[in-house]
Amino acid sequence: MAIHVWDHRLEYENEREDILDAVDTVFRSDQLILGDSVRGFEAEFAAYHGVAHCVGVDNGTNAVKLGLQALGVGPGDEVITVSNTAAPTVLAIDGAGATPVFVDVHPDTYLMDTGKVAAAITERTKALVPVHLYGQMVDLAPLQELAAAHGLKILEDCAQSHGARQNGRLAGTTGEAGAFSFYPTKVLGAYGDAGGVITSDDEAEANLRRLRYYGMEDRYYVVRTPGHNARLDEVHAEILRRKLRRLDDYIAARRAIAGRYAEALADTDLILPKIAPGNDHVYYLYVVRHPARDEILKALREFDFNFRVSYPWPVHTMTGFAHLGYSTGDLPETEVAAHEIFSLPMYPALPEDLQDKVITTLRKILDRG
Ligand SMILES: *Cc1c(COP(=O)(O)O)cnc(C)c1O
Predict the structure, then answer these.
(1) What confidence score (pLDDT) does residue 369 get?
(2) Cis before 283? omega within 30
(3) CB within 6 Å of ligand 1 — which residues?
(4) What is the model's pLDDT at position 203?
(5) Which domains can be identified in the chain, with CATH numbers?
(6) Arithmetic mean of pLDDT over the chain
(7) Is 56 in contact with 32 (CB distance < 8 Å)?
(8) Best of 61, 66, 94, 310 to mutate for ligand 1, by most ligand atoms within 8 A of CB?
(9) Whose CA is nearest to atom 11 of ligand 1?
(10) pLDDT tens for residues 151-194?
C-alpha cells in the first residue's frame, strides 16, 4: 500500500459522527447559503484570533484575491511577495489586477527574506503579501516598519499557518488582513474547498462581504464592481466550526510527529526544519533538505512512498507567469531550494507505525549514501 504525504481517511473515521452530524445540521436548517453555520463559523474563527471580523469565502485563492481588493489593491498597483509559494498566492495578486513582484527567500526557513523587501519597493507598491509557508511565520516587524514608512497594506497569506504564532501573536492578526485556505490538507481543513479572511478593519470587512456576494449590499442590488460569487458553503462552514474546536489538538499532534522526526533524523545529513526566533511552528509540512533530493525521492518510490515537493517549480520560472518578466537566476535561494527540499508525511492522524516506517526507510536510504 502506498504511503502518502497526506491522507484524510483516518481522521474521517475518528470524527465521522461529528462530521455527519454537521452535514445533517445544515441540511435540516432553513438556509443553505450564507446561513447560521457561515455566520457561526465567522464569529468563532474571529474570536479564536481575537479580531473583529472573519468573512468566509469559497477558497484560499479568493481569500487572497478578495482580501487585496477589499484593501483597495487593483490595476496599476504592485504587490511584493515570494516565488517560493503555492502558485495561487501569485494567481490571486494577478487576479486582483495588480502586478506581483518577487523577493528571494531566506535559505534557513525558505520564507520571505525581509531584508530584501526595501529594495523592491517602488512608487507603485501598494501591498506586501508575506506567505507564512509550511507552518511558521515570516518575520513581520521589519515589514510593519516598511509598511508604515511607505503607506503599504499587509495581507498575510496564512493558508499554511492556522494557529501559528510569532512572539505570541497569531498568524493573520498583525497585517490589515489575514487570508486563509481551508482546503482539506490544511491545518484546519474542510471536506472540500473553503477559505476565509480575518480583519479588524471595518471597511475591509464591508468590502469583502460585497465582493463575495456579486458586489451586492442587499439582495439584487449591485453597489460595486468587481463582484464575485465567492461565498463560503454552509456545509463546509459547519464542518469547520466542529473542527475549529479541535484545532489546538491537531497542532499538538503535528508537533509531536515533528518532534519524533527531528529526534530520529538528527544524526543524518538531512537538513531538518529550522524555526526562526520567536516562532511557534504548526508543521503544515515537515520540509527537509538534501542536495541529492532527487535520488532520495527515487529510492523512496521503490519503497512505495509517495513523497511530495512543495514546491518543485518556483513560480517566477513557470511559463504561465512569463508575462511578469522574470527568468531563471533571478532568485537564487528560491531556485536552489526548489531542487533540494522535500516533505515527509505529516497529518495529525498519521499512525506511529507509519512514522516509524518513514524514519527507518529514510535512514536506510541515507546510510546507503
Ligand atoms: C493552499 C494555498 C493557497 C490557496 O488556497 P486554495 O484554497 O487552494 O485556493 C494559497 N496560498 C497558499 C500559501 C496555500 O498553501
Answers:
(1) 65
(2) no
(3) 59-61, 85-86, 88-89, 131, 157, 159-160, 181, 183, 193, 195
(4) 98
(5) 3-103+110-244 (3.40.640.10), 247-367 (3.90.1150.10)
(6) 96
(7) no
(8) 61
(9) 89
(10) 999 999 999 999 999 999 999 999 999 999 999 999 999 999 99
